[in-house]
Amino acid sequence: MRVSRLRFLRVAGVVLGAAVLVGWQFDILLLKTGLPGEAATTKANTAVCLLLSGVCLWQVQAERQAKRRRSQGDRLRSVHLLQPLFSVLYVLYSSAIVGIGLLTLLQYWLGWDLGIDQLLFQDQSDSTATSHPGRMGFNTALNFIFIGSSLFLIRSHDKQKVWLAQLLAAIAGLVAAQAMVGYAYDVRAFYQLSTLQHQWQFIRH
After folding, report:
1. What pLDDT, on a 0 to 100 scale, did the predictor assign at position 85?
2. For the chain, what is the domain count?
3. What is the DSSP letter of 23?
4. 121-143 burial string, b = 16+ CB within 10 Å, else e?
5. Burial of 115 (0-12, 13-18, 19+ CB in 10 A)
6. I need a labelling partner for 33 at 20 to 30 A (CA). Which of 43, 83, 90, 122 fits?
7. d(C-alpha 120, C-alpha 47), whole Å
8. What is the pLDDT of residues 70-109, one digit of tens each?
9. What mean pLDDT comes out for the span 153-175?
10. 128 occurs within a structural domain
11. Nearest to 119, CA basis, from 24, 203, 32, 41
12. From CA 103, how far away is CA 94, in angstroms rounded?
């Protein structure tokens, strides 16, 4: 059951992320929004994080399968030789997810524009779902910090780190569920800027 869930998540991340990026590259509105008639687009940085998350989950599952095969006496020499490269890429990808989320939050909190929102594509849409063109939502950025951190820790042999990774993944799930409820009942505070951002801006001013 766990393997099937992991397989679903990795495929969903790769397919959705890649589809959105294709939509931005060729200006296919349906791929950018996901729903016919929807005005709000999935931002390019969101798609990149989804894609990287899927690739990381792919690596996690591949490592688990290789471990089972080794325990059964099956030698995978080619995979073993490439493992250091895969490990480095995994760390880079999970760190990139955290970095994109963190930089996005800093832009919201400090009122900065670091140029990362439209680094890949120019957002010409008239969507009001975000306060800045090309920028993922506040809650989305926060979620990717949780997801990237969870992915970074999940490969550890330390049980406490694995437990923390699972906790972060659960928190990410709750944040995502809150956003879904917000969209379903049109409660913008649930899926747009959190009260934390407004509180920070109030303190700054």
Report:
1. 84
2. 1
3. H
4. bebebeeebbeeebbbbbbbbbb
5. exposed
6. 90
7. 11
8. 665 555 555 566 778 888 999 999 999 999 999 999 999 9
9. 92
10. no
11. 24
12. 14
